[in-house]
Amino acid sequence: MKRFFLLLCLMLTACAPRAIRPPELHPVPATTLLASVSASGRAFHSLRGLAKVKVVDSGRTIGGTQVILAEKPDRLRAETLSPFGQPLLVLASDGRQLSILAPGEGRFYQGPATAQNLGRFTGFAVPLPTLVQILLYQVPVIAGSQQSVSITKDGRYRLTLQTYNGQREVLYFDANKRLVEMNYSADGELKFLVSWSRFTTGERAFPQAATLSLPRQQTEVSLMFTELKINAPIPAERFDLKPPAGVSIVDLP
Fold first, then answer.
1. Which of 127, 204, 228, 239 would bridge 94 by S-S if both were Cys, CB 3.0 to 4.6 A apart?
2. Architecture of 28-244 per CATH?
3. Which residue stretches of the chain are H helix?
């Protein structure tokens, strides 16, 4: 019996999954990591694709499929589809005007493209240029900051940018020096967090999944593209939504 018990222990040990060791990273200067961020910002200027989207807002979870078009600096179109592929909600902005068509309600909302108006329909109240930047894998980097680089225990580079007026931005990079996470704080409070994953292959990889969080508002939006085209031309009229006949027009503040 004792021999059987020892044999069983050996078998269980042999079958146990081995811990994955994080990659061994070598120190790099902050300029190298900042150059990677800058290069990604220059590489991508538009996208169009089909994405699975999930929104968590104050404990409530809403999911669906969206057709998303984005173009720098501030153009966005998002069509929320029904399970049968019909549009349930269409949002479009040319950077100045925000227009939303809700066919089921027979209403057409229009007003300035402010962060507050955007948040009414997306759950994510951020300036439109910021949202477009994030979708296109670009982050604003705070200027005039102290810079420091460290290596985390899980094998990532951590670049910390700190200013004298209380702003703090922390950027995380994988072993390939690809930006995978960013968080921004001010006055000791975490304001904004973004993470990217499922990168495409090739010389300039693009993330096919992203998660955006606003901790104070208890809001999180995650999206995962199932179909994606990068830097394809998008006609300007795709961002100019007009009210169809027969709908009620509601002006946004």
1. 239
2. Clam (2.50)
3. 2-15, 30-43, 115-122, 128-135
